[in-house]
Specification:
By secondary structure, the protein is an alpha+beta fold. The protein has one domain: Alpha-Beta Plaits (2-Layer Sandwich), CATH 3.30.70. The chain is built from two helices and four strands. The protein has a four-stranded antiparallel beta sheet, covered by helices on one side. Helix 1 packs across helix 2. The radius of gyration is 12 Å and the shape is globular. The two termini are 19 Å apart.
Length: 83
């Protein structure tokens, strides 16, 4: 299954605890969309959140995020891991 990193920008003031809460909500709905949310990172200074997941397509990620907490990514990239 493809792996993706989605990016949520302009999240000024967001804290790691906020992202953890949103991630927990993602985990509750991920199966409905065939998504597996794996990890997340936060750049507090820039207000940017990065989410790593596997999913059948980009749309499934957006649908899961929308249902879970309403925070849609600004960009989603399909990625492949290297050495």
């Amino acid at each position: 299954m493809p792996r993706y990193i989605d990016v949520h920008k302009n999240m000024k003031g967001v804290k790691l605890e906020d992202v953890a809460e949103a991630h927990a909500k993602d985990l509750k709905v991920q199966g409905k969309y065939g998504v597996r949310f794996e990890k997340y990172w936060l750049d507090e200074k820039e207000g940017t959140i990065f989410c790593l997941s596997t999913a059948p397509n980009k749309e499934a990620i957006s649908k899961a995020h929308k249902e879970a907490h309403g925070l849609l990514p600004n960009e989603t990239f399909e990625v492949r891991e290297g050495n």
